[in-house]
Design a protein that fits this description.
This protein is α/β, with parallel strands linked by helices. It has 5 helices and 6 strands, in the order βαββαβααβαβ. It folds into 2 domains: 49 residues, no CATH class; 93 residues, Rossmann fold.
């Protein structure tokens, strides 16, 4: 891994437009390229940089809490090599849980991410709007959950 150096900033990820395994066969987010770039400084699309990405979107008022849409995009992002935090998985164990309990659990998980992917309808979701405010405050990368395009 010529030119790579070990760092302690867990939010820094390989920045080249190659898959993580091409950078480091045992992908470890504690390595960065010689250019000292992070995922926030380089425009990358799905599959080019490994992200810890939070899926955000509407749940309340949707059939099955919109879990099928969350599962579909989570599967696609995982197939591209990313770590996905999916609220449909966080809150699936107890559908009777209150909205306030769910958003508290979700926000704790969001804090460990470096990117957020937004599902269609997120603007009409009270919870997604809170998640977006937190993600902006933490300067996370934003993506369209369906297309994978940076926002």
């Amino acid at each position: 891994m010529s030119g790579w150096e070990r760092i302690d900033d867990c939010e820094t990820v390989p920045c080249e437009r190659l898959s993580c395994t091409e950078h480091h066969p045992d992908y470890d987010p504690h390595w960065r390229c010689p250019a000292d770039a992070t995922c926030r400084e380089v425009q990358v699309g799905r599959g080019h940089t490994c992200l810890t990405i939070y899926i955000s979107g509407p749940m309340s008022g949707y059939p099955d809490f919109n879990f099928p849409a969350f599962r579909t995009v989570a599967k696609r992002w995982r197939e591209d090599g990313h770590t996905v935090v999916n609220p449909a998985e966080i809150n699936a164990d107890d559908p009777a849980r209150s909205w306030e309990d769910c958003i508290r659990r979700d926000l704790r998980e969001l804090l460990g991410c470096n990117a957020i992917a937004l599902l269609p309808g997120w603007l009409q979701s009270r919870g997604a709007n809170i998640e977006v405010q937190v993600a902006r405050a933490l300067q996370m990368a934003f993506y369209d959950a369906v297309s994978g395009d940076p926002l």
